[in-house]
Amino acid sequence: MSDVDKAPLAPSDPAPLAPASGGVFRWVALGLAALVAGYLCWALEDLRQEAKTSGKAVNAHLPQILAKVDATSATVKEVSDDLKKLRDLAGASGPRDKSLAVFADRLLDMLEQAQVVVGVEKLIGKEISKPLAAADWVRDARKEALFLTFRAKSKAELFTRLCKNKFGSPWLVQGSEEGAKPEPLAAWFAARDPEAKELHAAEQAGE
Question: Which helix (H) or strand (E) holds 173?
């Protein structure tokens, strides 16, 4: 037997071991955690920028908003004060006719609730010039009515002057329904209030 045949056989190299599954899972978990953390950081930054932008917008418009609120509050207070003064006349003591205030107050309350516009006739045509919503018109008319309760000598005079502007042109009323035509404010009151109806009829008879 030769020396080659007598040489011991060399042991074969062992097969490489597969990496442990626990290590793979740990790296995957760390990767997912990093992705989640990155997304949260991006989301928080986006929210911070949005809040900053919204804050600037609110600060920019806040003075205008407050100004509108103040103007609205002042208007409401002014109307309330005028209404209170007019209604107080009905119970006030003095030589003036208290029924004038009650009469004017009743007519204006009725008109204020109506879905109509008020104005005067245009110089050309039969349409209303610069129509105002009834509630807006009544707000100014209450001041005139307050003055008339002191100056007018009768309901007839108060009614006539309340239904005309300072230039003597009759106020017109027009409903919001389709096809509605302007009509004199005096006639509108007369169609809805018995006392105004009598005064309007007497005024027309005297013309």
Answer: strand 172-175
Strand partners, 175: 116
The C-alpha atoms of residue 77 and residue 85 are separated, in whole angstroms, by: 12
CA nearest 90: which of 103, 77, 80?
Answer: 103
Strand-pair partners of 174: 117
DSSP category for residue 112: H
Q: At what angle do helices 98-112 and 134-151 cross, to 10 degrees?
A: 170
> From edge to edge, which strands make up the β-sheet containing 116-121?
128-133, 116-121, 172-175, 183-184
Between 197 and 44, the more confident residue is: 197
User: Residue 28 is which amino acid?
Assistant: V
pTM here? 0.55
24 or 146, greater pLDDT: 146
Nearest in space to 163 (alpha carbons), one of 155, 154, 172: 172
Report which secondary-structure segment, H or E, holds 48.
helix 21-89
Which three-class secondary structure state does DSSP give residue 152?
Answer: coil
For the cut 90, the answer to whether the pLDDT of residue 21 exceeds it is no
What is the C-alpha to C-alpha distance for residues 112 and 55, in angstroms, rounded to an integer? 41
Q: Which tokens belong to 84?
A: 């209170």
**What pLDDT sits at residue 163?**
93
Instruction: Say which residues have a Cβ less than 8 Å from residue 102's Cβ, sequence separation at least 6.
Output: 90
Q: How many Cβ atoms from other residues are within 10 Å of residue 81's Cβ?
A: 11
